[in-house]
Task: inverse folding
């Protein structure tokens, strides 16, 4: 079955840029979504179709996907962005989540 | 605004069947995939499966032998049944919606745009 790999944790200082990566075989051939998940809350989609931002999601969130790696970039990271982030891909038969990355804003 | 609400027992004995229902309010069930996702304590999100408005299903291969997802549009509900549960099935269970068509066009991408608040299910004797 298809697998997506994420680094367990990423740290960033407030105001700096955070990059969270997601890797999978020929991932660039699939569309990737990204979800922000804070403790005690439901996940929220922050990027879909590789680089589309849903309404209400701040412009500081952006996404890209090429080759075997998709990247979620948070520019000007704020304390409120501290959360777990999950990538997700889909083919016609299944939906797959990455293992998640804990973003710490120090 | 569409809202999803999970309901069902918070405690299930092994090896019984876990049964949850998700009620959809504020919108149509047409042209969407309706999914179940879970998160075991201290672990990441795991997709369980989904059902389209036509009634066709997809399941996580690792759970496929134990899972059934069904749809009742007359009640604006979809349901999850997971058989032969063990302690490893203890998790927060979420229901979610994923668009399948937009303005009649079948989407070639998949993302979950609306989620329920989640319900905790503990499997213990």
Result:
């Amino acid at each position: 079955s298809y697998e997506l790999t994420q680094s367990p944790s990423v740290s960033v200082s407030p105001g700096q840029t955070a990059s969270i990566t997601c890797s999978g075989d020929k991932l660039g051939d699939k569309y990737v979504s990204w979800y922000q998940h804070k403790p005690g809350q439901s996940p929220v989609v922050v990027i879909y179709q590789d680089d589309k931002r849903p309404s209400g999601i701040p412009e500081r969130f952006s996404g890209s996907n090429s080759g075997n790696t998709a990247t979620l970039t948070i520019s000007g990271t704020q304390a409120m962005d501290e959360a777990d982030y999950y990538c997700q891909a889909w083919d016609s038969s299944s939906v797959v989540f990455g293992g998640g990355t804990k973003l710490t804003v120090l | 605004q569409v809202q999803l609400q999970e309901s069902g027992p918070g405690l299930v004995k092994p090896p019984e069947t876990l049964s949850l229902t998700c009620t959809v309010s504020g919108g149509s069930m047409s042209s969407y995939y309706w999914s179940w996702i879970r998160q075991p304590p201290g672990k990441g999100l795991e997709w369980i499966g989904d059902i389209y408005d036509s009634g066709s299903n997809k399941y996580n291969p690792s759970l496929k032998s134990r899972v059934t997802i069904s749809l009742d549009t007359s009640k604006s509900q979809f349901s999850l049944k997971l058989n032969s549960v063990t302690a490893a099935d203890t998790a927060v269970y979420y229901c979610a919606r994923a668009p399948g068509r937009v303005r009649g066009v079948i989407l070639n991408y998949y993302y979950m745009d609306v989620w329920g608040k989640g319900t905790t299910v503990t499997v213990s004797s």
